[in-house]
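Researcher: Please predict.
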Amino acid sequence: MQARSALFDLYGDYLRTRGSRAPVAALVRLLAPLDIAAPAVRTAVSRMVRQGWLHPLRLASGPGYLLTPKAARRLDETSARVYRTGRGGWDGRFDMILLHGVLDRAHATRLAFLGYGPLSEQVWVAPRASDEVEAALAEAGTGYDRFSAGHVAGSAGATGIVGQAWDLDRIGQSYREFEESLHPVVKAITVRSSDEEAYAARFRLVHAWRSFLFRDPQLPTALLPPGWPGLRAAGFFDKHSARLRPAADRYVERCLQAARSGSRVGFSEP
C-alpha cells in the first residue's frame, strides 16, 4: 500500500468527519499499523501539498495538514460511491463524449474514475453524467462534444454498449478475488482482537474496495448481467466495514489524542 494512497483513504474515511485536519504526528501513528514508515508518510504529505490536496497549518500540538476544498469535494464524492449513497436508477440514456483527440493515460484514468468507459479512443460513455467530467476534460486540454444518447436500434442493445465499454467478466472476477483475499483478513478480527488490529483490517478492506472506483462504473441494475458478483462483494464489504468501524474509530481517536498531547501512551486496550 502506497503512503499517498493510504493518506487519501485516511482523510476520506476517518479525518473528513473530524475537521479534515490532523497533526503530522497523528498521520504517522495512523499509518504505522499498515507498515508505512514515517519518512514515507512525510514524503507523501509533501507531494500532496504540492499537488493542491493538503494545506499546511499550525495546530496547538504542532505542524498539521488540512484538506483543501478540492480534496474535500473529491473525497466526499468518493465516499458517496464507496458506500453507495444517493445511487439512483437509470433513465435509459448514456452520457456520451466524443473527443477531438486522444487522452493520455492519466486523463483516461480520471474519466474511468468518473464512471466512463471507452467505446474507442475517442468515444466514451457512462450510464449517468458526472458533474466533474467537463472540468476533467478541460484539464486534459482536449476538445470534445457531449451528448445525452439513448440506444435506438441494433442487435446488441444497451447491454451490448456496456459490454464494449467495460470488461464485465474481468471486473466480476476482480470482485470474487476481492472477497476471497479479504475474507481471512476480516474474519481474523474477533472480540478478542485489539482496536489497532481491527483498524488495520478495516483499512485494508476499504482500501481494496476503493480500487473498484477505477474499474467498475457502478452500472444500474438494468444493465448488470444476472448473478453479478459485485452485489455479493458489496454485501460482504458493507457487513465487515460496519462491524469493524467502532473499534477502528476508537483507535483513530486515541491516536489523535496522543498526538495532540505528545504522549506515547494510551494505546493499551480498555
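Model: The radius of gyration is 21 Å.
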